[in-house]
Amino acid sequence: MAQANPWSAYIDRIREAHTPEALDTLEHELFGRKEGAMTLAMKALKDLDAEGKKQQAQELNTWKKQLTETIAEQRTALLHPSDDALASSDAMDITLSLPPRERGSLHLIPSFMEHAADVFGRMGFDVATGPEVESEEMNFDMLNIPPDHPARDAQDTFWVQGKDKRVLRTHTSPVQIRYMREHKPPLRMICMGKVYRKDADATHSPVFHQLEGLMIGKDVSLANMKAVMVNAVRELLGRDVEYRFRTGYFPFVEPGLEMDIRWQGDEQTREGNWLEVVGCGMVHPNVLKNCGIDVEESNGVMPRQLKPTWQGFAFGFGIDRLVMIKHQIPSIKMLFEGDMRFLRQF
Fold first, then answer.
1. How high is the pLDDT of residue 314?
2. I need a surface site. Which of 102, 121, 160, 223 has the fewest CB within 10 A?
3. Count H helices, E strands: the chain?
4. Residue 303 pLDDT
């Protein structure tokens, strides 16, 4: 009985290799530098006569090429299995119903902030940022709130221990101060972020979010302010939003106004309530002076009369309250509890 060709047997073994490791072992067994079967066969050619060496070398080269090509084909098949191989494999069942993949999304507040940045950006407002830990000077003094001012009592504050009097900012207004110091008028900017006060009830939280805006120019008036704010709330809350302006007091604006939005509230107040969402007004001259902005010039008439060089308005929205109104959320606490059953509704 004729002996089976060893190279043909190697071809069969290569095609039966099911892992890259098994293929590597066979390749070394064939072509290893010292003990490889093909390597030894090639070395043995030197012991043959000229005619035998020529015939045997031609045959070995043919098998070497075929073995090399078969190894390459099998390696490719292992790295990129065909559809038939996948269908016949027990490792994958394409009919298996997998559980739904959990999909994440932005929280209501940062999602609303992105929307707000887009709305004000279309009106030409830059977006500015600032630190959440501020100096007493930036948080109060520069905003026309001196140490003995009663407005400080209205903002129960979280103070930071240390030699310098530093505070978790009670509003984002210090960002306006920083912006006016770094930019020359005319200017438009908004700033958004966390602020901190010792408040806690259905519409107040110790940590909440504000959106403040500032516009400075030579002919900026309350009419411009109302136009910007009305357009903003309609874009953010809907075209049919019901709002009203009323007088209010803030040390850093004069005159001052407040804006209320009609809000459904909870089940016991379905007839609707007014919820304050923003304080606003014309920027107080003292604030502009603190930032190095000239607010008066002579008009050349005797006796000397003064008219404003630069003036503008500022406003501050409560982002959390706007979100509550938009989605009819009865308590601000629901925004911070992390209850996925609540958050998945949106």
1. 94
2. 102
3. 12, 12
4. 47
Distance (Å, rounded) from C-alpha 42 to C-alpha 64?
10
Single out the residue of 267, 270, 241, 246 nearest to residue 256, CA to CA. Answer: 246
Domain range summary for the chain, segments of one domain joined by +: 6-88, 108-343
User: Mean pLDDT by 10-residue block, N- to C-terminus, for the chain (346 residues)?
Assistant: 70 86 86 83 84 85 88 84 57 72 83 93 92 86 74 68 81 92 92 85 77 92 93 90 90 90 58 78 91 69 60 92 87 84 83
Q: What CATH number does the domain located at 108-343 have?
A: 3.30.930.10
317: exposed, middle or buried (Cβ count in 10 Å: 0-12, 13-18, 19+): buried
Pairing of strands 187-196, 126-128: parallel
| Nearest by Cα to 293 from 191, 212, 186, 189 | 186
* Nearby residues of 322 by Cβ (< 8 Å), 6 or more positions away: 112, 211, 233, 236, 237, 261, 277
Q: What pTM value is reported for the model?
A: 0.63
DSSP string, 32-78: -TTT-HHHHHHHGGGGS-HHHHHHHHHHHHHHHHHHHHHHHHHHHHH
Helices (H), the chain: 6-15, 20-31, 37-43, 50-79, 83-88, 108-121, 136-139, 173-182, 222-237, 285-290, 319-327, 340-343
What are the φ/ψ torsions at residue 127 (nearest 5 degrees)? -110, 120
Are 218 and 310 contacting, i.e. CB atoms less than 8 angstroms apart?
yes
What distance, in Å, lies between the first and last C-alpha atoms of the chain?
A: 80
Residue 128 DSSP SS3: strand
